[in-house]
Amino acid sequence: MTIQAVIDQAFVAQKKAFLTGKTTDIDGRLANLRRFKQAILNNKEAIYQALDSDLGKTPEVVDMAEIGAVTDEIDVMLENLTTWAQDDVFPLSGHFAGSEGRIRAEPYGLTYIIGPFNYPFNLTLTPLVGAIAAGNTAILKPSESTPATSAIIKKVIEESFDPEIVTVIEGGRKENEILLAKPFDFFFFTGSPNVGKIIMKAAADHLAPVVLELGGKCPVVVFEDADIDLLIERLTYTKYLNSGQTCVAPDYLLVPEAIKQHVVDKLLTKIAADYQGKSVGKLVNTKQIEKLAGYLKETKGKVIAGGEYDEQSRQFAATVVTDVEWDDALMQDEIFGPILPILSYTDLATVREKIITHHEKPLAIYAFSRNEQAALDFITTIQSGDAQINDMLTHAMCPQLPFGGIGPSGMGKYHGKPSFDIYSHKRSVRTVKA
Q1: NCBIfam families from the xrefs (predicted)?
Q2: Cα–chain center distance at 278
């Protein structure tokens, strides 16, 4: 069969299954989720091997940021789905007194989920949990840039679901173009803003809702009273994890001029002790290495640590660049690699203006201060998808917190109940007593 025929067949099968009500039974949804979790656990070793091959991830990182993220999401759904799926029933008032209102959470139908390469297991399958919990069907397209992980995702899905409920289509641009032409009822995309615009246009053609999880340059703003040891610990871990290929990774560091040297000295000591010329994991391909190497050639800043790379092993050293200005090559686009630019400042008000002017509405903003209220007041003045005070990145792994961007960093929130909500059409029903 041609890929067009395979996709056509999968789409028709899912449409038929949905229209016959196969996905709406709550017990059936729960059973699917339990089987899904078990299939993930049964394939742990193969998942470890796939993510090591594609991205150099250790089992510890996979347990936390890939497998654990998905199974935690499943656990939240298993615990709460029965309650969340109940109709909200209440008496109406005013002109409608004597009748009854009902709000029902109903599935949209057929969903298309497009996964990214950086956390290919987590960010392809965590969105699926919400889709299944809400009673939808789904076609998944994992990233072609991580082929080993794509293959194990396909295996896990085939062990978990009937193909008329969830199907995996592997491939690249050709397959995506065929899928985007299909009249899906819902689109979910994680990736770059440029591709996000293509997905949004396709969704518009079908008048379908869309969730876009994009990216952006996430700033870290250090206050003069910050706990510097805590800052350095969290900064190095989150910046160099997965070789910086994390959409909510700290992209650049803003430090008061008065403590800049102190911060830099501690940072260099930490990198020398823990990273020794490497980052954590591999870059996805040599094209990404060339892009990062190009930044270092173009920057007017001073490379004070790292800068080395090996195309064969796809390793790029944990790198720090100081004396960076806002118009530098490193400050134009999301870096998405283990390069940390450092900018100094003397005035927080100016910092706010610069962030808003140059990198409007980032996916996350981070502030470090012992004065929690001062940090909260500051981040309140800057729009971002989400934010953290005295930590970074971890909010994106918490199933109790809605996660997502705003404007150029994305639209739509998911995780936990927001995942159930985004995949559910809230249908109003009024009943008049006969």
Answers
A1: BenzalDHMdlD
A2: 24
Instruction: Tell me which residue has tokens 């004396």.
Output: 323
Pairwise CA distance, residues 274 & 37, whole Å = 34
- Please report which confidence band the pLDDT of residue 220 belongs to, taking 50, 70 and 90 as the band edges: very high
User: In order of start, what are the domains of the chain with their CATH numbers?
Assistant: 3-214+405-432 (3.40.605.10), 219-397 (3.40.309.10)
189 close to 213: Cβ distance less than 8 angstroms: yes
Residues 6+ apart with CB under 8 A from 169: 3, 6, 7, 10, 139, 140, 141, 175, 179
Q: What is the pLDDT of residue 270?
A: 96
- The three-point CA angle 127-233-366 to 5° equals 55
Which member of 66, 73, 164, 213 is catalytic?
Answer: 213
Question: 218 catalytic, yes or no?
Answer: no
Write down the pLDDT at residue 292: 97
* Cα(420)–Cα(397) distance, integer angstroms: 16
- Contacting residues for 324 by C-beta, under 8 A, at least 6 apart: 252, 299, 300, 301, 330, 331, 341, 342, 343
Entry pTM = 0.96
Burial of 162 (0-12, 13-18, 19+ CB in 10 A): middle
Query: Has 213 been annotated as catalytic?
Result: yes
Q: pLDDT, tens digit, for every residue of 60-108?
A: 999 999 999 999 999 999 999 999 999 999 999 999 999 999 999 999 9
How many CA atoms lie within 13 Å of 96's alpha carbon, on the beta-carbon side? 11
Residue 129 to residue 139: CA distance in whole angstroms: 13
Mean pLDDT score of the chain: 97
Give the pLDDT confidence score for residue 277 in this predicted structure. 66
The letter for the amino acid at 210 is V
Nearest to 271 by CA among 335, 317, 322, 227: 317
Task: Categorize the per-residue pLDDT at 279 as very low, low, confident or very high, splitting at 50, 70 and 90.
Answer: confident
Residue from 36, 3, 7, 246 nearest 131 by CA: 36
pLDDT at 191 over 80: yes
The two structure tokens encoding residue 282: 């591999």
In this predicted model, what pLDDT tens digit does every residue of 151-174 receive, in sequence order? 999 999 999 999 999 999 999 999
The tokens describing 325, both together, are 């200005």
Catalytic residue of the set 73, 164, 218, 247: 247
Instruction: Return d(Cα 188, Cα 136) in angstroms, integer.
Output: 13
